[in-house]
Design a protein that fits this description.
binds zinc ion; globular; TIM Barrel; 342 residues
């Protein structure tokens, strides 16, 4: 392990853009598959690892849906959620805003109340037993249209869920205009939730403007195409609207052709608050530490620069001020210790 990789591995971190089902690692899927022997996913560990190796986007969707199919009752949801926290804790993630898509489960017959109870139970256990603070973003799966938006809004605003802090929009952007979701975001914001839609991942900067004006986005998921519009970059920098950058995911989905062409440096040079995140890590054969290493290379960062990237995620998070001070302090102390040792 290089020095910087070792630094990243031990660095206390916050993760702001990572999906619930998209975080199911082969280890977790093996546990779920053991509960449901009739499922179509491979059962032996070697075949399962191979199944998880990213080949193209269609295969990613196949893997993703096979995990959705394994979430058949509340206990599956609880197991997945708790085990994700274990994988985050191993990477020294102290705080994560996990994007959860309740509609995928409620539309398959898990009652919303049981779903919420399962994730909340996992959240409180993970905080106590693993030291990871989890918070939820409930997102509308855009491809499922307005009925999914209605159901997601109902669950997010009507049922009560202590860990829920924000409201998102995922799925494809092409053919799924953002402004149609305005009424749902209005309701979620009125209920006290923060707005964090995906935008500008696979479409141009116009989608990011839509997310800002129609959906009142406080952070943008990806925002990769922001660099195509200097006025937008300036606006994001001025308003300190953070971008949740997920480098490996952008290559996997072909939002960006090649890592060396990733616009993250341009974003940073324009003064935009950039955070580094992992999106659907096992399905894109990555993890948060790998994404930090990639960002460090693309931005030519040393240990202090990497620590600043970790602080960006704390700043851009929806933690309360005491939480932010605590985690930033932990990052500072880790950097100081590292300097003393090397
Ligand atoms: Zn995402």
């Amino acid at each position: 392990m290089s020095d910087l990789n070792a630094f990243i591995a031990g660095l206390p971190k916050a993760e702001l853009h990572v999906h619930h089902v998209g975080s199911a690692s082969p280890r977790i899927v093996a546990e779920l598959a053991a509960r449901h022997p009739d499922s179509s996913v491979p059962h032996d560990p070697e075949a399962l690892r191979e199944f998880f190796t990213f080949t193209d986007f269609a295969h990613f969707i196949e893997v993703y849906l096979s995990v959705v199919d394994l979430l058949r009752d509340a206990e599956d949801v609880r197991l997945l959620t708790y085990e994700i926290a274990r994988d985050l804790a191993r990477q020294q993630v102290r705080y994560a805003e996990l994007t959860v898509t309740p509609f995928s489960s409620t539309s398959r017959g898990i009652p919303a109340e049981a779903f919420l109870e399962a994730i909340e139970d996992a959240r409180t256990a993970a905080e106590k037993e693993l030291g990871v603070v989890l918070r939820w973003t409930f997102d509308i799966p855009g491809e499922a249209g307005l009925p999914a938006a209605e159901e997601t809004t109902r669950i997010a605003t009507g049922l009560g869920c202590d860990g829920l802090i924000s409201f998102g929009l995922g799925g494809p952007e092409i053919g799924v205009p953002r402004p149609q979701f305005k009424p749902y975001f209005d309701r979620a914001i009125a209920a006290g939730l923060r707005s964090v839609p995906h935008a500008g991942e696979t479409t141009g900067p116009g989608t990011i403007w839509d997310a800002l004006t129609s959906l009142r986005a406080e952070r943008i998921g990806h925002g990769t195409s922001a660099t195509q519009d200097p006025r937008l970059l300036e606006h994001l920098a001025e308003q300190q609207i953070p971008l949740e950058v997920c480098p490996t995911s952008n290559i996997a989905t072909r939002a960006v052709a090649d890592l060396d062409e990733h616009p993250v440096r341009e974003m940073v040079e324009a003064g935009v608050l950039v955070t580094v995140n992992s999106d659907d890590p096992p399905m894109f054969s990555t993890d948060l530490n790998t994404e930090y290493a990639i960002a460090a290379r693309l931005l030519s960062l040393d240990a202090a620069g990497i620590a600043e990237l970790a602080r960006n995620a704390v700043r851009a998070s929806f933690m309360d001020e005491a939480g932010k001070r605590g985690l930033s302090g932990e990052i500072d102390a880790y950097l100081t210790d590292w300097g003393r040792q090397s």
